[in-house]
Every structure is written in structure tokens, then in C-alpha cells.
Amino acid sequence: MPSRLKRSLLELRSFPAQFWVLTLGIFIYVAAAALAFPFEGIYLHRELGVSMSMVGVVFGLVPVAVMPVQFWGGHLTDRLGRRWVIMLSVSMGVVWFAGFAFVTEVWQVALLVAIESSLGWPLFQTASNAMIADLLPPEKRQEAFSVSRVAMNLGVVVGPAAAGLALGFGVTFRELFLAAAAGCALMVAIMYFTIRESRPASATAPQKHRDAQGRSGYRIVFHDRVFLVFCLVAVLPVFCIGNFGSIYSVYITDFLGVPYGEWGMLLALNAFIVATVQYPLVRATRFKNRMVLLAIASAALALGIGGSAFAGPLWSLVVLIVVMSVGETLLSPVAAAEVSDLAPEAVRGRYMGVWTIAWNGGAALGPAFGGWAMDAFGGRQAFAILLVEGLVGAGLFLALAPGWKRRREQAWAAGRPRP
Fold first, then answer.
1. Distances in Å between the alpha carbon of 119 and those of 42, 164, 279?
2. Residue 233 and residue 146 share a domain
3. Are 172 and 47 in contact (CB under 8 A)?
4. 125 contacts: CB under 8 Å, gap ≥ 6
5. 126 and 224 co-located in one domain
6. What residues contact 53, with CB distance under 8 A and at least 6 apart?
7. Smallest Cα–Cα separation from 209: which of 74, 377, 315, 106?
């Protein structure tokens, strides 16, 4: 066995057992959800007769409308603990999918979307990210977040594949939704019986909730200029990648004439690259300047997605998907690791909550802008704008790189182990 691979495996074995249980739970949760969510819009349109414009309103505008409630998630993660918030959020998945199996009216769907968008997946992102940061030391968090992302991507591959087979054997959409609810219930049971609370003691000590200026709670977060600037810049590549799952598919099939089957192969290529490359790439770059890594991620997403404005034959789209996938592998784990380092231990949940809102906000507003730009300017012009936007993000990350290097040197001087 090559020494590099051996070192990598030994390091993974050093991760605590609870991290691996959480990672297994993430895979089960995402795979269960992926049984159903690719077919929800189809179900509403075909089975319930809901117009596509109304589907867009329900799945697009309702999550944005309830986004302010997500600030509560960071507070709960610090006060109640990561374990209980994870179980609460996944329980909302049970409500979401079981409820979806029996909806008959659009308002019922909108209510379920509001519940899920407030207390479901966004809350899970906040609490699970905080737990990973609790369980791993700073020098291992970047790799840990990459492993959790691999689990998510594998779930996104396995879930729809299993659903496709099931539909081929005559399983109904309603039965798929109930199976997804059962998978979420399994995840809740795993968390209840196997996961311990990881919240640090400082989060439960009232005196630790205040900084040197006497601020507490979200006042600490919103006075952290470094963190807020980081979030604002990070929204740019997230804004770009937010177009991939929805607007991009319409663009390459309707505007570029790519058959649906070939689009499916491009999606599979993206999932394969992320699942296989993410951990080794993140591990190989774990001690590099994170702002430089995020600049590379933003540029790769800009070129891979926005560059499709100049795409021609299928091979050019394959190249662009490869480039985009490299950016995707770096963006989420590197950014999450940076947020966990910036967050004071006592209010880590709140920092993760704000980061979840920044991520989901960028991912939601990206397609909204992309769809408007396609109607207003045309397909290629809209994606050319995304190209410029992502490259601006890369430039801003490079501008933040010297400050990141100074902060890291100060941390080493204060006693943090030098890698």
C-alpha cells in the first residue's frame, strides 16, 4: 500500500466513532430524501394539476419568506444542543414526506414547505456542522467536512437511482414519499440511540456567552466584520452553483439542445467526480491558504457553469462539468472549516446558523436571478453574467488571502499547533 494512502487511512481511523455514526446518518437521511425530492414537482404538476408557475412560487419563494426564522436554529443549536436539534430537524423530514404523500391542495404543500424550510434541512445543516466542529480539532475539520459532503453526494446518487428502479416496478409516487419518511425516521432512531451531545461546556456557561465588550448571542456574530465579509464574498460562488440543478438543466436542454439522456450522464459525471475526488483533494490542500482555495473554487465554478455561455459540442460541456466539479469539491468543506475556525466556541451554533442562511440564500437567489436573466437577455448572455460574477468572487477571495495568513500566524503564536 502506498505510504500516502496508508497515512490517509490511518488519519481517517483517528476520527472519533461518533463522527462516523453521524456521517452514516447523513448518508441515510440524504438518500432517503433523494428518493422523493426529484419527483415532487412532477407529482404536483401531473397528479394534482398544479401549474408550473405555482410550483416555482411554492418551492422558490416560500423558503425565502421563512428564511429569517432560521436564525432561531443557531440559537437552538447552542442552547438545546446539537443532538436534539439534529433529531428535531430530521423529524421534520418525516412530517414533510409523510404529509406530501397525502396533500390535495397547494396551500397544504406551501405549509409543508414552510415547516421544512424553517425547521428541517437548514436546521440540520447548522447543527450537524456544529457537531462536526465540536468533534474534530481545527487541523482536521476541513477533511471532516469533506467526508460529510462525500456522504451527501453518495446519498444523492443512491436515492434517485433506487427511486427510478422502484418506479419501473410500479411503485407509486405516494409510496416513494412514505419510504422517504421511513428513512428519515430511521435516521432519528440512529441519532437517539447512538449519538451523544457534543456541545462544549462553554456554550452552557452564561459567563462564556459574552465577549470582551460584553456582547452576547447574535450581537457577537453581527459585530464580527471578518466573518460577515467572508459570508458576503462566499455568497458569490454559492450564487453561481445555485443555478446548476435547475436553471442550468433548462439552459443546456432547451437552449443548447442536449438530449435528456446526455444531461443525465453529465449529472452522473458530476456526482462521480465529487464523490471520488473531494476527500483526497481537500486533504492534499488542508494546510494551504483557505482564501486562495476558495478563490480557485469560485473561479472553477464560474468557468464551469458560466463558461457554458460559450459551449459547443458535448465534449465541451464534459470539460466544463469537470472544471465545475473541482470547484464544488473545494467550496463547501473549505468554507465550513473556515466558519468553524472563526466562530467562538460558546456561540458556534449561531455562526453556523448565519452561514447556513448565507449558503441557502445564495443558492435560492441564484436560480431566481438566472431565470430572470434568461428571459430578459437570453440563455448565453445570462450564463456569461454568471461567469463574470463568479470571477469577481475569486478576485475578492484573493484580496482576503493576506488577512487569512496573518490570522493563522497569530493563532500559531497564541499556542495553536503548527501543522
1. 24, 28, 29
2. no
3. no
4. 352, 356, 359, 360
5. no
6. none
7. 74
Single out the residue of 375, 301, 310 nearest to residue 334, CA to CA: 301
CA atoms of 394 and 48, how far apart (whole Å): 44
Cell digits of residue 265: 450522464
Distance CA 230, CA 331 (A): 13
Residue 360: which CATH number?
1.20.1250.20
Q: Measure CA of the first residue to CA of the last residue in the chain; give whole Å.
A: 24
Co-location of 188 and 224 in the same domain: no
Tally of structural domains, the chain: 2
112, three cell numbers = 409543508
For residue 208, tell me if it sits in a domain: no
User: Residue 344: which of 233, 168, 200 has the closest Cα?
Assistant: 200
Nearest-angstrom CA–CA distance, 48 and 335: 40
200 belongs to a structural domain:
no
DSSP-assigned states of every residue in 222-272: HT-HHHHHHHHHHHHHHHHHTTTTTHHHHIIIIIS---HHHHHHHHHHHHH
C-alpha 4/C-alpha 361 separation (Å) is 39
My answer on whether 178 and 34 are in the same domain is: yes
What confidence tens digit (pLDDT) does each residue in 162-174 have?
Answer: 887 888 888 888 9
Q: 21: helix, coil or strand?
A: helix
Tell me the residue range of the domain where 43 lies.
16-195
Does residue 167 share a domain with residue 224? no
* pLDDT tens digits, one per residue of 257-275: 888 668 778 877 888 888 8
Give the residue from 145, 144, 130 showing the smallest Cα distance to 199.
Answer: 130
**Is the entire prediction scored with pTM above 0.85?**
no
* Residue at a domain's end among 130, 164, 195: 195
pLDDT digits (tens, 9 = 90+) for 142-195: 899 999 988 988 888 888 888 878 888 888 889 999 999 999 999 999 999 999
Angle between helix axes 314-342 and 348-377 (nearest 10 degrees) is: 150
All three cell numbers of 136, joined, read 474534530
